[in-house]
Design a protein that fits this description.
By secondary structure, the protein is mostly helical. It has one domain. It is built from four helices and no strands. The protein has helices at about 5-30, 35-55, 65-95, 100-125. The chain is elongated, with a radius of gyration of 15 Å.
Length: about 130
C-alpha cells in the first residue's frame, strides 16, 4: 500500500457515499430499474471521481483532453464487467429470494467488483 492507494481509498469512500445514495435512492425510492439506477450512480460518481482522482489521488497534470477519454473508457469497461457479472451471478445464487432483494445484493456486489477493476484501470491506464 502506497500513498496513492490510501488516497484512492479516501476518494472512494466519498464517492461511494455519493453514488450509493443515488443508486439505492433511484432503485428503492423512485422505482427505477437495476440498470438505470446503477448507471446513474456511475455517471454522476464518475464525474466526481475524475475530478478528485486526477488531481488529488494520482496528481496527474496531463490535459483533460488526454485523460478524459481514457477515464471514460475505463469506467465503461469496469461498469459493464462488474455489473454484467454481478447480476446474473447474484440472481442465480439468490434465486429463491425476491427479485428486488437479489438485485440490491447484485448492486452491492457490482460496487465491489467495480472498485477493484476501476483502481487498476485508473492507476495503470487513465492516469498512468
Amino acid at each position: 500500500m502506497d500513498k496513492t492507494t490510501i488516497k484512492f481509498i479516501l476518494v472512494g469512500i466519498i464517492n461511494t457515499l455519493f453514488g450509493t445514495a443515488i443508486m439505492f435512492g433511484l432503485y428503492n425510492l423512485a422505482g427505477c430499474s437495476y440498470w438505470l439506477s446503477s448507471a446513474a450512480n456511475y455517471f454522476f460518481g464518475s464525474i466526481l471521481s475524475f475530478l478528485l482522482n486526477k488531481r488529488f489521488t494520482f496528481e496527474n497534470h496531463d490535459s483533460v483532453r488526454n485523460t478524459a477519454p481514457k477515464f471514460v473508457i475505463n469506467i465503461l469497461v469496469c461498469y459493464l464487467l462488474a455489473y454484467g457479472m454481478a447480476k446474473p451471478l447474484t440472481l442465480w445464487i439468490f434465486s429463491g429470494f425476491s427479485v428486488q432483494l437479489a438485485e440490491n445484493i447484485a448492486m452491492l456486489l457490482g460496487m465491489v467488483l467495480f472498485t477493484a477493476l476501476n483502481y487498476i484501470g485508473q492507476r495503470f491506464f487513465a492516469f498512468r
